[in-house]
Amino acid sequence: MSPATILIALLIVCFFAVLPTWPHAAHWGYYPSLLIAALILAAAMLAEMS
Predict the structure, then answer these.
(1) Per-residue DSSP letters for 8-34?
(2) Where do the structural domains in the chain lie, given as residue ranges?
(3) Best CA proximity match to 30, nearest among 42, 39, 40, 21
């Protein structure tokens, strides 16, 4: 496995980890998961370019 593949897999796991499913995180909305989604997109674009 290349480092880019590992990075993308790790970011996808982080995306599901920050979904606002816990009561204390419900008021955060989807802002943390949108940030992780942007990181996944950037990592995928970098992996495709290399």
Answers:
(1) HHHHHHHHHHTSS-SGGGGGGTTHHHH
(2) 3-49
(3) 21
What per-residue string of b and e applies to 25-40 under the rule 16 or more CB within 10 Å gives b?
Answer: eeeeeeebbeebbebb
* 3-47 confidence digits (pLDDT tens): 778 887 887 887 777 766 667 766 777 677 778 778 878 888 887
Residue 43: alpha-carbon gap to chain centroid: 9
According to the model, what pLDDT value does residue 5 have? Answer: 81
Closest C-alpha among 10, 32, 35, 12 to residue 21: 32
pTM comes to 0.52
How far does Cα 1 stand from its chain's mean position?
A: 19
